[in-house]
Amino acid sequence: MEEFVNARDHGPDDDPPVTAVASRRVKRGREREFEEWVPDILAAAKEFPGYLGSEELRPSDSEDDDYRIVFRFDHASNLHAWEDSEECRRLLREAEPLIHEEKVHVLTGLETWLAVFPLITTILLLFGPLLSQLPMLLRTLVLPG
Hints:
The protein is an alpha+beta fold. It has a single domain (5-109), classed as Alpha-Beta Plaits, CATH 3.30.70.100. Helices cover 45% and strands 23% of the residues. The chain is built from five helices and four strands; from the N terminus they run βαββααβαα. It has a four-stranded antiparallel β-sheet with strand order 2-3-1-4. β2 (51-57) and β3 form a beta hairpin. α1 (31-46) packs antiparallel against α3. The longest helix is centred in the last third of the chain and has 24 residues, at 109-132. The model is unreliable at 1-8 (pLDDT under 50).
């Protein structure tokens, strides 16, 4: 499975937390089947060591066919154990007839932070004065980080 190859470039002593974002473009008319398949892969990943959580991001409208599934693992090695497992491979084979394009990006903790930092900075620049009026606890809930 080549989709997670970028996360394997870390040194032997470096086993960072990782986030894998799988983007799958679903064939028109197969959306319902794909949506029925998603809970199976999420449930299977949840059983693997190091699993921290996952999210499913559905398309925003009927013209969009791009579904995203985000998996978080405590270490790259645990992500690799999941991706190399027979269970993961079987589930991905089941989905093959439903999709016409697939991309997977793996981010380490630092890369994730660097991706989020510009967004948080922009929000603070635009809404900083308003947010500063909120109590600390509420401000933290509105804008974690």
